[in-house]
Amino acid sequence: MRALRQYRWLSYLLAGLNSSLTCTFAQRQVIDSLKFNLAHSQQDDVRSLLLTELAANYQFFNADTAILLTQQASEIAVRSHFPKGEAAALTRLGEVYRLRGDYAKALDTHFKALSVSRKTNDLSEEANTLSFAAIVYNELGEYRRGLDYLFQAERIYHQSPFESRAYRPFGKRAAYAGFRLSNIGDAYQQLGMLDSALFFQQQALRMPSSGLSYIPSQGLKALILERLALIKQLRHDLQGALVYNHQALIVASQVDDLLNKTRSKYQLAEVYAALGKADSGLYYARGAFQDAQKVLQKPLLLSTSSLLAQLYKSKNQIDSAFYFQEVASKVKDSLFSADRFRRLQMFILNEQQRSYELLQAQERSNSRVLRLSLLVGLAVSILVAFFLWRSRQQQQRANHILNRQNEQVEAQRKALEQTLDALKATQIQLIEKERMVALRAQMNPHFIFNCLNSIKLYATENDSEKASEYLTKFSRLIRMVLENSRSERVTLRNELDMLRLYADMEIMRFKQKLSFVVELEPGIDADFVEIPPLLLQPYVENAIWHGLMHKPEGGTVRVRASQPQENLLQLTITDDGIGRARAAELRSKSASHRKSFGLKLTSERITLVNQLYQTQAQVAIQDLVGAGGQPAGTEVILQIPI
């Protein structure tokens, strides 16, 4: 039986490989036309754009050829000093990597394209790259980041003419607008905002009928109809979903758009399965599975094989269900392998390094501004001295004017002193704010580094499903940390939600031996009260790793928010761990010491907050003792004026 399953898997792979080398007749005509123009073109800039366009037509059925073509296009563009061609080639290369499921390479390549287009102020290419980078973030589950990129592209498209003379043969504004609006709607749908999703999909459907050579107008229409069908399905309007999916399948079939035919069949199979029509569901699911192999779309192949496994299981056809479950498992392993995870991890760390380098550049810029301010102050002082000297000269000519001028000079001197004092105070405040921003920027890499180490350890010790669940929580946590770090203060609700998510991850690591409790005193408006971001997490982390990690039975971390006074918020973090003395003793004996870098940064941030806002925020840490004098844990009390 196992040999039979291996034979069937190999036959499906061979069929997929054979079909991947084919394309539609219409695509072949476009490809032949582009090759003809390429053979007769002598200008490097035109050759670069032609190679990029040729790669776009190969990307759905021969990714390796598409990659080679974009690399050639980029090399020609660099050699001929043609930044638009280089940015266009890099953007197309990033899209090919996305279609292959290599998201780390896709994002890295898109950011290189953005760097090129921004250096030359090429707004149209910058908007194009932002649109494709947004699709990568959407597929990674970073829908809000994807929306941000899409709306940035939308603003740029409205600010500048998209179809410049150099690029007019290779793009159409209407097609990109419809494609972009549909992607915005897709992101809203993933966020559960179905009304907004429906609005943007309907706007995309109303765009003029126009397409790109590699995205025909009918193919784009089929994609929009599929997404409208999915919205209907999520609203439990299954009959409406059937209507839209059948329309999408008809439109895609008219232009032999294999990718959208596959998606339409898959969605039809899902709807029929939801309606209890298993035979119809199996019919469309089998067709979607066969087509998914031809378009080399691993995520789509994973979805169709998983659905087939469910449908065969519901019909009690265990062998077929097991076979397709095995197919889904192999595809999933290829998509989420350890190597790809490590590359994505390195990419995230590199992005943190880029942010740090940007912060350093900003600090250097601030230093230049400070020097300029000092020069201006010196010039003002010289001018004041000149006017004072002139006043003394005039005093010798007229005594009655002398007294009046002395009064005016004195008033000017006092005003100038007040201005200089205000400038000094402002400079000090700006310096303190920059130090606060620098500390927040240090908190994020430290926090992300600790979480990534936890994910690496958990993925090593547990199965892939738990690792995938852990990675999902991590991605949500990273998004919250990055969003919170942009602000000087966040709501107490936001900070507590982030702590719960972090604690959930540690609970999974401790195999449910850890519990986390949040107590909110009645009368505290957690959505109104604001505190500095990432202020509590280092203390909770310290309680878990130094207080509870060494207890075989685990323990509890309790966070309590109270308001002893009207303008004072008190946050108490209590654990029933082994206490600080015992933890220090164990730490001194351990070969690997876990540094409390987060606590040091948090202490510095509290000091800066007090200096910057003239407040009296303070923290106290005390050991808890049981009835027999034994250590009973640690208590941290933070008092923050509000």
Automatic annotation (TrEMBL):
| Annotated Signal transduction histidine kinase internal region domain residues | 436-514
- What InterPro entries has UniProt attached to this entry? Bact_2-comp_sensor_kinase (IPR050640), HATPase_C_sf (IPR036890), Sig_transdc_His_kin_internal (IPR010559), TPR-like_helical_dom_sf (IPR011990), TPR_rpt (IPR019734)
PROSITE patterns referenced in this protein's UniProt entry, alphabetically:
TPR
GO cellular component term of the entry, any: membrane
Q: Can you say where the TPR repeats lie in this chain?
A: 87-120
Q: What is this protein called?
A: Signal transduction histidine kinase, LytS
Q: What is the lineage of its organism?
A: Bacteria, Pseudomonadati, Bacteroidota, Cytophagia, Cytophagales
Source domain of life: Bacteria
From the UniProt record, list the coiled-coil ranges: 392-433
